[in-house]
């Protein structure tokens, strides 16, 4: 029974896990279609964003609107969202300047209002934030950047650059980004399109121009933004958690342990794995600008990863290679169906197997097996002794009809 049903369930789960990247790609594609290009029904007719941009005499192009200032085009894009306030993105290019004193390349950087988590991370000496030397700016603005400090510090050395950044954030923009999503310089507004008026458009262009015009020269301005070490750590942690969950399902389907003999060891091994995972994540992300955030996400992944990996390893070690198989006939004591909002589970209950399982047996079965059996039916149970001393179920077969 378990050799047929449980592997099928684990295969379905594996397919669901494998489909996550595809679902993400579909979501991104659908999200991109909502970018204000006049194609969305919400932005085609009565959109406040469109009315504001027309009042600013912006040129409508595929993907948004363009506003010219000082010979430079500033692109405004509207992302409609029915659940949260709309997002408006404003970006412009930064020209390369291959001069003798130019910096190697434009770093990846995000500037935003500093919050309590940022201050906590710095007090715990987990987060490392660049300091510009401007006390007011450093106290209010948090700099997310894991590049070289001397390059980032020189990039923000101009008072005009810092003034432009604080001006955008004071207007209501949430982030000011360098090298984000194929944009050289970008500001993100997330307060909704209704609050984005003509004054905001004019001030956004002025502040972005002030920032870009006072930056040092860069030999290269790459269009891509590489994933940070912290993001890689979090992504890897969640991938390992998914793999561990799949391994747990597969091991439990193949060598289903009977009773709670593995539970104490599972807790001890899982606690050790979680501790090692937390230490590894902490050692990797410590000293980054978003270290506390990455550590929190890594720990959340570890909470899933550790117990699943522990159970999968112990279940496999207990059942794999075990050739001590015995056959036992038992009469079905009773059956039970547990119904919840999300699922329905079916169980058979059998008397204990002396010398192997001292308590009564509760076995999870399929709906078809549940409907086909009745109380008093005789079943044959094939049980392995377990290399770690915990019996496990190899097969369950109904003998009487």
Question: What do these coordinates show?
Answer:
The protein is an alpha+beta fold. It is built from 13 helices and 17 strands. Residues 1-9 and 33-44 have low confidence and may be disordered. The chain has helices at residues 5-18, 20-33, 41-44, 48-55, 116-123, 135-140, 149-155, 159-171, 198-213, 229-254, 263-285, 291-319, 367-372; strands spanning 59-61, 64-69, 72-79, 87-92, 103-105, 109-113, 141-144, 173-180, 183-189, 218-220, 256-257, 325-331, 334-339, 344-350, 361-365, 378-384, 392-398. The chain has three domains: 5-14 and 227-319, no CATH class; 37-220, no CATH class; 325-398, OB fold (Dihydrolipoamide Acetyltransferase, E2P) (Beta Barrel). The relative contact order is 0.11.
Poorly predicted segments: 1-9, 33-44
Q: Can you tell me the number of structural domains? A: 3
For the largest beta-sheet, the strand count, sense and barrel status come to: 8 strands, antiparallel
General form: elongated
Number of helices: 13
User: What's the multimeric state?
Assistant: single chain
Q: Structural class, from secondary structure content?
A: alpha+beta
Spatially, the strands of the biggest sheet line up as: 1-2-3-4-9-8-6-7
Q: CA-to-CA gap between the ends?
A: 17 Å
Order of helices and strands: HHHHEEEEEEHHEHHEEHEHEHHEEEEHEE
The whole-number mean of residue pLDDT values reads 86
Count of distinct strands: 17
